[in-house]
Design goal:
By secondary structure, this protein is an all-alpha fold. The protein has five helices and no strands. The chain folds into two domains: about 40 residues; about 35 residues, no CATH class.
């Protein structure tokens, strides 16, 4: 689906995949099918765009690691400044 040229083609490919997944009647797919159906427009809109959420995911991971290793620190201001220096 993500290799398609246009959003219309991507939506068609996603719709075809959802129909195929629904025909298989695999219980584990039902939640996935529902989610993909509800978000199909948004999923198809990413086709043709050159964007990534990698920076945000990396920042969130660094903050979580820092929170984990600094458990028990009593100076909130220092912890806050250290988090802000990572971003």
């Amino acid at each position: 689906m993500f290799r398609k040229e246009t959003r219309t083609e991507a939506k068609r490919e996603l719709r075809d995949w959802l129909l195929l997944a629904n025909q298989l009647s695999v219980p584990e797919f039902q939640h996935c099918i529902t989610t993909f159906t509800n978000w199909s427009t948004e999923i198809a809109n990413i086709v043709g765009e050159n964007i990534s959420n990698g920076f945000i995911e990396g920042s969130n991971n660094k903050i979580k690691v820092l929170k984990r290793i600094s458990f028990g620190f009593q100076n909130f201001r220092r912890s806050r400044n250290r988090i802000l220096s990572l971003i």
